[in-house]
Design a protein that fits this description.
Length: 182
Amino acid sequence: RFLEYQDRVNGDSTSSVHMLDINPEMLAEGERRFADSEWVRDGRISFTVGNAEHLEGLSDETFDAYSIAFGIRNCTRPEQVVREAYRVLKPGGRFMCLEFSRVENPVLAAVYDFHSFNVIPRLGEAIAGDRASYEYLVESIRKFPPQNEFAQIIRDAGFTTVGKGYENLTFGTVAIHTGYKF
């Protein structure tokens, strides 16, 4: 979508995307989905198996933007991922992280917790035959720092945030965290 936006809205046919994932199968799926795209033919998308905690082979101050969605909570050291993002971003660059978060309203949080711990694993078992993965999903969300703590991790890495540093979506079940490198 980024490249489509750059092409269509900004008339920029030089922007590129570097996709990185620690899971080769996940990365291969991304490559498969983009195989017939003009961006792959033009060399504007690259795919690398790698660890977000150690972006080996990526030089300092290389990228204008860094985004990670629903993945940082699966990293052993999210604070190291954020530091690496800071390292590879150019001055003026933007870090964006979309991740599951905590519902802040106590009444809604109780409903959400009941649904998360009782309904989601059962649905996973019924639909995918895999209860354990959906239990892990719920547990990993609960272990990830709440929004304000993660926003502080972003600031501690050197980023500047605006306001709280995040925007809650769907009552806080998901949040977009943003930091700028100046």
